[in-house]
Design goal:
Length: 127
Amino acid sequence: MFIQIEPQSDVPIYSQVQNGIMEGIVRGELKPGDTLPSVRALAGDLGVNMHTVNKSYHELENKGVIKIVPKSGAIISSSSEEGVMEERIEQLSQNLRPLLAESLVYGLDEKQIQDLVSSIIKKVKGE
């Protein structure tokens, strides 16, 4: 698993860790049932504070992306687990709405937004 941390970025480091893990899942580098490195190990590998990685793991757990199992670590969840897909879609919708509104305020039309989203998806997938 490769996570790139950019300390100068406006994106908080814990979010960069979360995003890196989710992109690893999208690219197939991490699969349901895989165990993530321990908080201490990943923090050491990335050169960040353990609390930062811990926060990332807990945020991912709250989103249903991983399960934290005592003495087993953080395990990648199946995307269909717990039947909460509708809830996840609603949360994504709430998160995307302000970004789409901002895009429209900047003058992008629907086609430009769709092209932008398609471009981002390709980058996330490593295409």
